[in-house]
Amino acid sequence: MSEFRFELLATDGAARTGVIHTPRGDIRTPAFMPVGTAGTVKAMLPQSVCQTGADILLGNTYHLMLRPGAERVAALGGLHKFMDWHRPILTDSGGFQVMSLSGLRKISEEGVRFQSHIDGHAEFLSPERVMEIQRLLGSDIQMVLDECPALPAERAVIETSLALSMRWARRSRRAFGEQPGRACFGIVQGGTYSDLRIRSAEMLQEIGFDGYAIGGLAVGEPQAAMFETLDATVAHLPADQPRYLMGAGKPSDIVGAVLRGIDMFDCVLPTRSGRNGQAFTWSGVLNLRNACHADDAAPLDSACVCPACRQFSRAYLHHTVKANEIIASMLLTWHNLTFYQDLMATLRDHIATGSVASLSARFQQ
């Protein structure tokens, strides 16, 4: 079995392009991971997701543990076989979803007790159980359990939360153990306090991980605050390991983060927008519900090779969106995921040729 390793190919300022090598295939970076929350990228077949150019998907530990259950997935051959996706999968820890259940959970040193949002039954997640679930799912990259406090928050709240997350990170890493070919990522926390972010990054490196994520951002804070936090944090992460910004985001968020040295991204935005009649293009976001598209025979984007652009007009897409037809969600999701993968490929090309600054100017807010 081949090892998990990161290969840096080129840099342009802080921006970088490379390859994450895994036994299930290479992940070209910068990389965008479509979100397959419950073992499916909504409105897409696995082979269709492959055709967009995606090298890796994200699965959600919280949702999969509740339904159908990690033990059941393991008995059926693991998540890759279960959902017919044979490239790499990253699973998050479920911590963000649990933390969002503020009225249904209780945090302690041991972990988090919470009620299922599905049927209200009691559940408990500890760092050890989170890693056990991800091992059962068989994911290639596994995330530690952390606490993700809502922003804005007082420094004392963030500092207490950070200390707990670091203790959980140590327990998670120990529970991950040795899984040849698989990776365990730590998660940097600390709100928008630069010194706390640096402290978190240093503590995680003392524990030792295969990659480092930045959590607790892209949760509603201004983009400028996110970028300032990245500026303060990324320089304190290892240059020879992957860096992952969790939950971002808009194309301008991704481009700005790439300029600051981030390698990996995930977000529900392209799939959720597709189900709501919105299409990302190089000219901006189009709302296919708008009447201006009703008689437009042009494609969404003449340069795009997805089926929505090659086979259908804006008028047809407008009609299917207005009629609430399932094909509208399918086509617009396919288009949006293709756009995001095209964006990542374009970023990789511009970094390799030292011209990423010219691309970034198109996405400045």
Walk me through the topology:
Layout (H helix, E strand, L loop, with lengths): L4 E8 L2 E8 L2 E5 L1 E3 L1 E2 L9 H6 L5 E4 H6 L3 H6 L3 H5 L5 E4 L2 H6 L4 E3 L4 E4 L6 E4 L1 H11 L3 E3 L11 H22 L6 E6 L5 H14 L3 E4 L8 H11 L9 E3 L5 H9 L4 E3 L2 H7 L2 E4 L2 E4 L19 H5 L2 H9 L3 H27 L3 H5 L5
Parallel strand pairs: 4-15, 5-6, 6-7, 7-11, 11-12, 12-13, 13-14, 14-15
Antiparallel strand pairs: 1-2, 2-3, 8-9, 9-10, 16-17
Helix pairs in contact: 6-7, 7-8, 8-9, 11-14, 13-14
**Structural class of the secondary structure composition?**
alpha/beta
State mean pLDDT (0 to 100 scale): 95
Numbering strands along the chain, what is their spatial order in the largest sheet?
Answer: 4-15-14-13-12-11-7-6-5
Report low-confidence residues grouped into runs of 5 or more: none
- Sheet-strand content, in percent, reads 15-25%
Helix content: 40-55%
CATH class term of the largest domain? Alpha Beta
Give the domain tally. Answer: 2
Which homologous superfamily in CATH is the superfamily of the largest domain? Queuine tRNA-ribosyltransferase-like
Rg result = 20 Å
Cα end-to-end separation: 45 Å
The CATH architecture of the largest domain is: Alpha-Beta Barrel
User: What's the number of extended β-strand segments?
Assistant: 17
Q: Number of DSSP helices?
A: 15
